[in-house]
Amino acid sequence: MQILTPHVYWAQRHGEIYLRVDLSDAKNLDISLQENHTLQFRAQGHGAKGDNEYMFSLEFLEPVRPEVNHKSTQRQVDIKLKKQEERWWDRLTQQQKKPLFLAPDFDRWLDESDAEMELQAKEEEKINKISVESRVRTDPYLGLKRGYLFMYNLVQFLGFSWIFVNMTVRLFILGQDSFYDTFHTTADMMYFCQMMAVLEVINPLLGLVKTGFFPAMIQVAGRNVILFVIFGSLEDMQNKPVVFFVFYLWSTIEIFRYPFYMLACISTEWKLLTWLRYSLWIPLYPLGVVAEAVAVIQSLPIFDETRLFSLPLPALLGHSLSFSYTLQLYLVLMFLGLFINFRHLYKQRRRRFRSRKRKVQ
Ligand SMILES: CCCCCCCCCCCCC/C=C/C(=O)SCCNC(=O)CCNC(=O)[C@H](O)C(C)(C)COP(=O)(O)OP(=O)(O)OC[C@H]1O[C@@H](n2cnc3c(N)ncnc32)[C@H](O)[C@@H]1OP(=O)(O)O
């Protein structure tokens, strides 16, 4: 058997040297390092000249650490060495002229500035990991908080899903007739979900979630005025088709929003769900506010007629001030609330998709 030299490919980082020996099915490997300077390689395998014994020797430009890591695969032998001092080498070997069997490993090749950037990125990743770990370690109640949020989101998801499925099935079976008894079939569940939703205002106050207090307050208060004051207290409103549209629009967004939060509690993300959570509000929110405005407008004559919640006035000023005046003011507030929350959700959407794009790059 002839003794031949295999093709050797190399690349470096500030602290390491990588060698790739082009020898498949290598056997009887004998790799040693002399005086931390010279690598001797000998093995049998299939190289450029068929099955043979191959060997080479490399005298490095600077000393390396005594440990030699190597891994032989079906295709090649990978060798990794650590430089004794972490610095960039101008070339691999002592001799100026590059040995003929040696070539750059372009799969691994980086020039000095790229390698520095890679090093920096690794450092940043390490620092981020440490800061996340220390944050996790410094909050002994994290598990409890996540457990509570997960359960809250699960309950809301089940509640709104029940409403959504119930309304959809009835719509398919009864058609337009289902519009008229939405309240009687789903109000109890909607009451429950919307009472629970008060926690959404409390959670940011307790620092449990990063939601802004005002957007959450506008959302919860806005819906509860419609549910409890307009629909809940006026029987004449309860069989109007507008109830169907309001409840359907509310529950459509929630069957995506709550599962999105549930996944966030277990540090998981489904791209499609994230997209739906941060996109569906674009048509649904204005439609929701329009449906709510219709409900308020329809309730005005009923409040005038029944004098419910009207404000007693001194005899000199008249009998009483109808609650419909308060509601007319509320109509203006609704569109202000729509503007504030639309802007908030738009910012959340941009922040979410911008940070995702950055992660992908
Ligand atoms: C005195 C009365 C005055 C009242 C004035 C009233 C005016 C009323 C006018 C307004 C009327 C509104 C009526 C509503 C109509 C409708 O709903 S129509 C249907 C469509 N609706 C929607 O699309 C709105 C849905 N609602 C929301 O999106 C929220 O309620 C919100 C507060 C408006 C915005 O949500 P926010 O939490 O700020 O954004 P996110 O990006 O989702 O969350 C921020 C981060 O917090 C984490 N998080 C939030 N909640 C939870 C949770 N429960 N569990 C776990 N985690 C949560 C979330 O994951 C985010 O974290 P990061 O991803 O790490 O950023």
UniProtKB/TrEMBL annotation:
Bilayer topology: Multi-pass membrane protein
Matching InterPro entries: CS_dom, HSP20-like_chaperone, Tyr_Pase-like_PTPLA
TM region(s), chain numbering: 147-169, 246-266, 278-303, 323-346
Residue ranges occupied by any CS domain in the UniProt entry: 3-93
GO cellular component terms attached to this protein's record: endoplasmic reticulum membrane
Keyword Membrane attached: yes
Family of this protein: Belongs to the very long-chain fatty acids dehydratase HACD family.
Role noted for this protein: Catalyzes the third of the four reactions of the long-chain fatty acids elongation cycle. This endoplasmic reticulum-bound enzymatic process, allows the addition of two carbons to the chain of long- and very long-chain fatty acids/VLCFAs per cycle. This enzyme catalyzes the dehydration of the 3-hydroxyacyl-CoA intermediate into trans-2,3-enoyl-CoA, within each cycle of fatty acid elongation. Thereby, it participates to the production of VLCFAs of different chain lengths that are involved in multiple biological processes as precursors of membrane lipids and lipid mediators. Catalyzes the third of the four reactions of the long-chain fatty acids elongation cycle. This endoplasmic reticulum-bound enzymatic process, allows the addition of two carbons to the chain of long- and very long-chain fatty acids/VLCFAs per cycle. This enzyme catalyzes the dehydration of the 3-hydroxyacyl-CoA intermediate into trans-2,3-enoyl-CoA, within each cycle of fatty acid elongation. Thereby, it participates in the production of VLCFAs of different chain lengths that are involved in multiple biological processes as precursors of membrane lipids and lipid mediators.
Name this protein carries in UniProt: Very-long-chain (3R)-3-hydroxyacyl-CoA dehydratase
Organism, as annotated: Cottoperca gobio
